[in-house]
Amino acid sequence: MEIRIAGLIENSFVDGEGIRFAIFTQGCPHNCLGCHNPQTHDFNGGKIVEIQSLVSKISENPLLKGVTLSGGEPFMQAKELSKLIDEIDRNKLN
To answer: Which residues fall within 8 angstroms of residue 68, CB to CB, at 6 or more apart?
Structure first.
């Protein structure tokens, strides 16, 4: 399964408690005034990645305290993110 992302921060210190793996999804219908990620709005932008490749990247860092899902609007890819979270849990990551 694949997911469309705008980008990653593999060692984020500002997207939650502790060291986080931040995934910025691509695509957002809201167009909120003052959005700090307007480049994530285009549903055809970003890049497509395999969910398993994200799981592999997450598993490489034993110091991570968690994964942060941001956007764009993450719920526009709820099925894909649910699969990602299931794989993280299944592999006992974070």
So the answer is: 12, 15, 16, 20, 21, 22, 23
Distances (CA, A) of 19 to 26, 38, 47, 80, 86: 22, 25, 24, 23, 20
Mean pLDDT confidence for 44-65? 96
Neighbours of 36 (CB within 10 A): 7
DSSP annotation of 52 reads: H
Give the pLDDT confidence score for residue 92 in this predicted structure. 75
pTM: 0.93
Among residues 44, 47, 36, the alpha carbon closest in space to that of 71 is found at 36
